[in-house]
Amino acid sequence: MENLIQIKENGINLVFKIAEDKTVSFLHCQKSEFNPGDIRENQEDWYRLVEVQLAGEDQDDHHGSKYTGTLPGRHLVFCDWKDTRNGRGRKLELSQRDERTGLFVTSHFQFTDGTSVLESWTTVVNQGVEPQGLTYVSSFALTGITKASMEDWDRAAALKVPSNTWYGEFQWKDYTLPELGLYKVFHYSTKRLSFSATGTWNSHEFLPMGYISCEDSGEGWYFSILHNGSWHWEVSDIKDALYLQLSGPAEAENHWFKWLEPEEAFESVHAAVAVTTRGFEDAVAEMTGYRRLCRRRNEDNEKLPVIFNDFMNCLGGDPTEEKEYPLIDAAAEIGCEYYTIDAGWYANGSWWSRVGEWEPSSKRFPHGLSKVLDYIRDKGMVPGLWLELEVMGIHCPIAAEKPDDWFFCRHGRRVIDHGRYQLDYRNPQVRQFAHEVVRRLVEEYGAGYIKMDYNINAGIGTELGADSAGDGLLLHNRAYLSWLDEVFLAYPKLIIENCGSGGMRINDALLSRHSIQSSSDQTEYTNYAAISAAAPAALTPEQNAVWSYPLTGADAEQTAFNMVNAMTMRIHQSGHLAKLSGENKELIREGIAYYKSYRELIKISFPFWPLGMPAFDHKQFALGFRNEVCAHLAVWNIESADGGMEIPLDGLEREISHIELVYPASLPCEYRYYRETGKLVVRQPEKSARLFKIDWK
Questions:
Q1: CATH class as words, domain 49-294
Q2: N or C terminus of the chain: which is more exposed, having fewer CB within 10 Å?
Q3: pLDDT of residue 42
């Protein structure tokens, strides 16, 4: 007899069907109620709960490169299901078994109370007598994205894809499926829209996230793959239905293969899916809440201290004792609370390929690094230092002393990328070495902040002690997260910034540990605005470090523009502060002072974009953050000579009592709020930015 399992939790409706032959279908994951009539006849068999691919087990549909019709996925039959609660909320487990191979597959669905977000993953246990070679395991598989639509799936669906690159992070783009080359041409096609990343820089082309929606029904799914290494997701059609599949590494895309011995278990990468009927901004709000609830609790995200870093448009990796003192004085004067010495503090000369010992340079700091760090503390700030602790330069004196199992190796040789070896955190000796470096900097030098940079991509992985290069990479990625957990357990107040040449490793796995993320290395402040304004769609504002780097000789508008870029999130101050004019120093001091007056609200605020998602080719855009107390709205005019903007605020669904320009107070800006139309009309100069406060009635 057929059986429906229907779950309603946190605004999400899940429906699973157990057929008479015990096959399991995943029919529904939406806010709306389930309507059986939305699924066409003979389609349910293709609403598969999970896809698992084995070596030697071919697929059973006309799939092309798609992960549909997998075997043993096709042969899995229902065993049991569990409905329990834990510290996060309700949890479902649906178990299936392939009698031919002995694979026991469990699909996990974790709700988080307070959000309409579902966390999903798969475990596979080999209960057979022969080893089985895994090549693909889905973390989340949902078919029927457009099942409630009257339109064909290629017209009904839309995608938001977050492109990401060095100097150009967080660029979300809207697409119809035909715009990406996916059309309904038959009952199903061999075309797919696939997005992947391979390696340790897992956001160097795209963020491991996205958003898919059914335009006429209003249903939308914001998804994030919760992993710091290789990942894959795809959208395509099967039997006239549109599907979404999320996973960690796969063999074809990411060189991942794993032998599963009898009684051995494998757990897939986790994925999170926010469900909405109210559009992208609502989905972002749900995911923002989820991120806040699931990350490591830490003081940094509560207090949001102002950080100075000496790198960007400042010392640029060439610090010396002489250069630091005037910067320290100036940073303290304008109100900074942390002061970080960036790259180069450990090097007597050229350092790129020699990093790895992490001992202070006597040439750069002839009186000792400790003296400078003590001076920072004397000025009332917490000192910080730059590290790149996952690599070792090929010319580092100790690199030759270490055995090969300290490093990634392929084809019998150490992997070299950009003059560095990749350290393998599966090795307990590597983790101990890294622990000792952190201990020395924290306990002997008193560092309270570490900028953990990462400037290579180690490629497909390592073959040492692994079934495949991708297997070695996955195990290393997980070992590195475990090492981070150990560091924060030992030093709970230590701030470790996640950086990868700016934003080349932005993902929710690392950000569940790190309290702060470097958003970009972009050096042009007008280009940075589009990065800063789009970033809150991918991470919480209290974790997003945005550079403010006024240039020497900058005018007041340039300085204020830099400040507004950072003021709604985390101020990452830089620039040659000691060389700035008094007016510019005062503008920075004014911005930091206002930031401190409202920063406690940032951690409870949610983003909105009244002019749409910003991009590099946009001339004007705006980013707001709202909470129960008030809202703040940053407005940028890049190139419009007259500076006129009409900004709709009626979507805030709150009655506005007052709007005030709060920064910069002294620079020209005309504005008026028209209550009858719900629009804020602003006129400001070209290449300018302004910050407004919106009060509720």
A1: mainly beta
A2: N
A3: 83
